[in-house]
Specification:
By secondary structure, the chain is an all-alpha fold. The chain folds into two domains: about 70 residues; about 220 residues, no CATH class. The chain is about 60% helix and about 0% strand. It has a two-stranded antiparallel ribbon. The radius of gyration is 30 Å and the shape is globular.
Length: about 300
């Protein structure tokens, strides 16, 4: 007979539970286990919060040079709310520049609709990544923001120099390629507003090391000059201006990417460039910067072609 059937129906407890002392021991063990689990969960939560909020851990620290325990910090920055005027400005500017450039491409040739579709899809994808918080995971790998920037720059280089549409793209008039760069003036104004709000390092504005506003101002002057006197006689001026614009743009982009607060952050500015991982500021490096590079590449390629159309 099974040992469970040795006991009546009203009392079918196993033999080892009949002893009250055994019940007390089991309850104490269960409470001790719950206490240990709660302690481990509390320690784990404390570690995570200390890394997220940059709070030094009280119980455990990093080993210092003299063997002393020093507080450990991790890099994850809490994003303050972007002022509504700056958010609206970046949204309207990015959408307006993308829409105007798309219309310009479709006006040149209807076959460029694939390029326009890729640009629109890329814009939507980066917005989703920013809104979902994927780009803001600075303590995790891979570093999404530099990867996106390198990917889009590779696409722009391929499109302007190696794609089958490169000859069609050079049909855009030179004064439009140059004058379109004037959108960099409001970009610099918005960056200055971000710097004034404490969301961006002052080095990233025209108060610091960012002189990209010069390209936007001179683009208007050079475009009017091209419209008045033609392209052929100003080819050396256009080439020099494009080289200057590429250098200034690359310097600003390098400062921004090297100061994003990843664990391997090589450049430490007054404020880390964490704002580029949030919407709509993410469109600065995923929409506006690629279009600026694209316009420079097309302008240079048009200057280097043998047959120049007189404007």
């Amino acid at each position: 007979m099974h040992r469970w059937r040795q006991y009546p129906r009203r009392n079918r407890s196993p033999p080892f539970l009949e002893d009250r002392e055994a019940l007390i021991v089991i309850r104490e063990a269960r409470s001790d286990l719950s206490f240990r689990l709660a302690r481990y969960a509390s320690r784990f939560t404390s570690d995570v919060l200390s890394k997220m909020l940059m709070i030094p851990h009280r119980s455990r620290g990093c080993q210092g040079q003299n063997g002393n325990t020093a507080p450990c910090y991790a890099k994850l920055f809490t994003m303050p709310p972007v002022p509504i005027d700056i958010a609206i400005g970046f949204t309207l500017l990015s959408v307006g520049v993308l829409a105007t450039f798309s219309v310009l491409l479709l006006k040149i040739s209807r076959s460029l609709w694939r390029v326009v579709a890729a640009m629109v899809g890329w814009t939507i994808l980066t917005a989703i990544l920013a809104l979902s918080g994927t780009l803001a995971g600075f303590t995790f790998r891979p570093p999404w923001v530099p990867i996106l920037v390198l990917a889009e720059l590779a696409f722009v280089v391929w499109l302007a120099w190696f794609s089958s549409w490169r000859d069609l793209l050079t049909q855009i008039p030179q004064f439009i390629l140059v004058g379109f760069q004037c959108f960099r003036i409001p970009v610099e104004l918005l960056l200055a507003m971000l710097g004034s709000s404490g969301l961006l390092a002052i080095e990233m504005t025209y108060y610091g090391r960012n002189f990209d506003v010069v390209v936007g101002v001179t683009a208007v002057i050079l475009a009017l000059w091209l419209r008045w006197s033609g392209e052929r006689s100003l080819r050396p001026v256009i080439l020099g201006w494009n080289v200057m614009g590429l250098c200034l743009l690359t310097i600003v982009l390098a400062h921004g990417m090297l100061s994003v607060p990843y664990p391997f952050q090589p450049l430490h500015l007054s404020v880390p460039t964490f704002v580029v991982a949030y919407f709509p500021i993410v469109w600065l490096v995923t929409v506006l910067v690629p279009i600026a590079y694209f316009l420079h590449f097309l302008s240079i390629r048009r200057c280097l072609t043998r047959e120049l159309d007189t404007v």
